[in-house]
Structure formats: structure tokens, C-alpha cells
Amino acid sequence: MAMLLLLGCVEPARQLPPCDRRTELPNEPRDPDNISVVSAGDIANCATHMHEETAMLVDNIAPDAVLTLGDTVYPNGSISDFLDCYHPSWGRFRSITRAAVGDHEYHTPHAAPFYAYFCSEMGVLPLQGRYSFNLGKWHVVVLNSNCGGDLDTSASVADNFGGCEQDAPQAQWLTKDLAQHPAKCTLAMWHHPRFSSGSHGNADRMAATWTILEAAGADLVLSGHAHFYERFAPMRADGELDTAHGLRQFVVGTGGTGLHTFSTVMPGSAVRYNATYGVLKLDLKPTGYRWKFIATGTTPASVDEGEAECHD
Amino acid sequence: MSRLSARRKIADRFVADAYAVLMVAACWLWTTQALAEPAAPTFAEIPSSSPFIDRWNVDARLSYGASFTTGQSYLGIGTGLAGGLTFGIPFHVEVGAMWFGGSKVSAQNSSLQYSEREWSTYSHLAAGYDIRAWQKHLVLRPQAIFGIFATSDTLSFVGAMGNVRERQVFATVALGPSLAVFGKWPGFHLGMEGQALLFPSRIAAPAGILTVVVGLER
Fold it and tell me: Please, what is the angle between helix A169-180 and helix A207-215, to 10°?
């Protein structure tokens, strides 16, 4: 008994899939002028297995890259959640996946299993959740939006990457990274949406980040957290519409875990959909992008599609 | 990262917890004062002759705790001691301390090794009321619990981009009801207690503790 108490409940060591230390994709895109990207957040839940349907959508699209938007696996982002639930489905895209960390990952201290599964090497520093890479002519920045405020996040781990304020290490890193990568088209992704018509509301703590991106001429923001699809018109950090300089945000929390209802429709919300799960397909071109939200169903359907040019 | 900032936030969260506890206690006191009406005591509740200390007890405890919505358990099997006083009313107060073994997880591949160990100590104050039956050989004791967990988290993350080895200890306040049932013999009691704990700073992650209690009393 004494040994049991001293050791606690020791689980046998799990074997992780191998790491690729590059943040760039392992293979060149099939068409550098039309890079196919699939994105979704709030994905694997082995209580419902709906993520297997969205994984089949990804199979059919056969993208060059997969961008996951946090809450990768439910309920707690433990190492067994990743290896036993996420890995058998969306795990087959792991080598082309670049992932943002969500709040459910922080149900486990430091979100460490997330970083272990997706390889800490992707990050600037271990356990920070921010890094960047290029997709053809696009520059992609991945950020950590877990800056406190979630009552299900342990007080011990929130903000241990330095927070989301304007003078925080992440903001300083972002400013420097954008200056070093002056791409015509820039995409940013993180978990908590700056704007959302769902019950979680707007992540005001990401306003400073949005302002930095706006000043650098970034174009797109991808987020999850709210379990539905929502597309916004180009917006400034303060919520004003600005087609010239604003960023277009997609909320794609439709990866497979429990759909949410809409509450107050936010200004700038252009399209909202919560009938089924689905993924966002982006075609990234040298000077613009096309988007298409593809919903699950017996006949996968396009719910919303369009195209736009990047900012000058 | 600013470690100072992280500590300040933990301290802020702790103060927020304590404030929430005080508010709940104040509401409870007000409610009991405002709403309580004197009721005729049943046979089992007839107070002893003295309102002062009727007896004291010391308990050894063996527990199993489970935390919900947490990816790694800081509870598991635990052991500890508690001591209490029972007044003639018969109102019971208790303090206790426990140690929970928690858990350890690890995973690795050829370029990355990750392991994390969590364990915790749990100190609690409890106040309750003894409902006695079968000539006081059986006691049913509902209680209100105020507890503080001190959880130790030791992380080792070894990878190509850098290594992280750190240990944090953080405190969280817990509140909740418990229900204990005891069999009593002269100078000795044996029973079980169940606690349901909520954390004001982490409401989506409640915990439950089931305890076997063996104790002496005079």
C-alpha cells in the first residue's frame, strides 16, 4: 500500500508517433499557386465519433495542409485522448497538420500531451503554442489564445506562455515575425474567436493581437471554440467593418464535437451554420484565396463559398 | 514567460476563491438565520445535557478521489488523519489533512520524451450535525466542507527545441457537502464518508472523494 501511495497511479509510457522537426510542410504543395488547405477545430470526441465523418471529408479533399484550431480532442486533451481517439482518425493527416492549442488541451497541465503529440519542435519554445511557417507565398502564424477567463482551465496553467496583452512575449514575437515575413497574404489562427455570435461571445483578449495583424496587413483569421461555422466580413480589432484593411475571420468549430446554438448575432457576421459538422476548405493563391465550407451528410454539401483578394 | 505574472495570477485566483467562499458562507449563515424555524426535536436529535464538548475523536482515513474534466488526476489513492469535536447539541467540527498519490503519465518517441507527475495534499475544515439512531450506535453526519488542495505538478519535457523541467505547486479552494455514516462502539468507530467538492476557480472540474474512516473517541 505504501508503494502504491508513493507511486500514485503510474500509467505505462505511451509510444508517440515520430516527430518531424520542421514547421514547413514535409512535401511541396502539388500546385504552389493553388494550395489546398482544410481547417477545423473542436474535433475528436470518442463519445460520439462524429470526427470520423469530418476526417472522411478531409480524405476526399486530400489537402496539402490541415490546420486544426484547438480543442483537438475531448474531453481533456490527455495523452490517451490523443493517441486512442484523435490519432486513429485525424491522426492520418498528422504529418501535414499544423495545430493551434485550445482550452480543453489545458485540462491537462501545460497542455503537455498536445505539445508532445504534435511535437514541441513546432513551437518557438516548448509549451508556448506559437510558431509560424510558409505555405507557398502565404505566411501562416499560429498563436495561443488561452489567456485566462475559462473557468474550466486550471489556474496553474493559464497564461504560462506569457499572456495575450500588447506587451506580452507572444505579441512581441508576432510583431517581429510579421516584420521578418512581409508576405502579401498572411493567415493567423488561434482557438478563441475574436468575434462570435455564440454563447461564448467575443474573445476581447485577442484584440491586441488582431491590431498587430491588421497593422501588418494580414488577411485571414481562423478560430474554433464556438461549435458552429461562422464567416465574418473583414473587420478591424474594434469590431468595425473595414473591407480595405480588416481581417476576415472564419469560426470553424465544427470538427466533430457537439454543435452549439447561436445567440446574439454580431455585427459583421455574414454566414452562420450549425446544422451539421464540417470543414473549411481554403485554396490559397499567390494574391488571394477561395473558401468553401463543406458539411457532412450523405452527400457532403457546400454551405458557403466565395473568394477574395489579399490586402495590398 | 513572466513567472512573476503567473504567480500573481495564481494569487489573484486564490483571492477570488477566498472571496467566493466568504460570500457563500455569508449567504449560508444569513439563510439559516433567516429561514430556520425551531422544530420539535425527534428522539434521535434530543440534545445531550451539555452544549459544550461532548467528546473528541481522532480518525485514520483511507480514500479514493477522482477529479472530473481533468486530463491527469491529482487525487487517486490517499491517506491522512482527521480530528474532531462533537458538542452536546450535537454539532460536530473537524479538521483533517490528507495526501493523495495522484498520477504519473509519460510518452516518448525517438526525439521527444514527456512525463508529468501530479500529487496533492488536502486540508479541510468541516462542520456538521450528528443524527443518531439505534441507541447512538449508528451516526449519520451531513457536513459542509471547506478545503484547500495544494497540488504539486512536476513536468519533464525533453525535445529538440529545448528542455523544460519545472515543478509548480498551486493552491485551489474547494467547497462542498459530505455525508458520513458511522457505526459506533465504546471508544471506537468505523464508517464511510463521501465528499462532493466544487472549485470556485474551476467550476467545470469537480471532484469526489470516498473515504473509509477508522477512529478512536472519548
Answer: 20
Distance between CA atoms of A170 and B188, rounded to whole angstroms? 60
Q: How far is CA A151 from CA A64, A95, B200, B203, in A?
A: 36, 33, 8, 6
pLDDT, tens digit, for every residue of B97-113? 999 999 999 999 988 89
Distance of alpha carbon A34 from alpha carbon A64, whole angstroms: 10
Q: What angle do CA A98, A101, A104 make, to 5 degrees?
A: 135
DSSP per position, chain B: --HHHHHHHHHHHHHHHHHHHHHHHHHHHHHHHHH----PPPGGG---S-SSEEEEEEEEEEEEEEESS-SS-S-EEEEEEEEEEEESSSEEEEEEEEEEEEEEEEEEETTEEEEEEEEEEEEEEEEEE-EEETTTTEEEEEEEEEEEEEEEEEEEEEETTEEEEEEEEEEEEEEEEEEEEEEEETTEEEEEEEEEEB-TT-TT--EEEEEEEEEEE-
Q: Cβ contacts (< 8 Å) between A155 and chain B: which residues?
A: 9-10, 13-14, 170, 172, 201-202
Q: Which of B56, B60, B143, B70 is nearest to B99 (CA)?
A: B60
**CB contact set of B27 (below 8 Å; sequence gap of 6+):** none
The alpha carbon torsion through B29, B35, B37, B39 (nearest 10 deg) reads -80
Judged by a CB distance cut-off of 8 A, whether residue A179 touches chain B is: no
Q: Are A255 and A51 in contact (CB under 8 A)?
A: yes
For B86, list phi and psi in degrees, rounded to 5.
Answer: -115, 130
CA dihedral A73, A75, A76, A79 (to 10 degrees): -50
CA A299 vs CA A56, A90, A255, A259: distances in Å:
12, 20, 17, 19
Q: Nearest chain A Cα to B200, which residue?
A: A151
Please tell me the predicted confidence (pLDDT) of residue B16: 54
- Walking along chain A (312 residues) 10 residues at a time, the average pLDDT comes out as 56 86 81 96 94 96 97 93 96 95 88 88 73 94 82 51 87 96 96 94 93 97 97 96 96 96 95 96 97 86 91 84
CB atoms A160 and B99 under 8 Å: no
Which ipTM did the prediction report?
A: 0.81
- Is any Cβ of chain A less than 8 angstroms from the Cβ of B116? yes
CB A116 within 8 A of CB B79: no
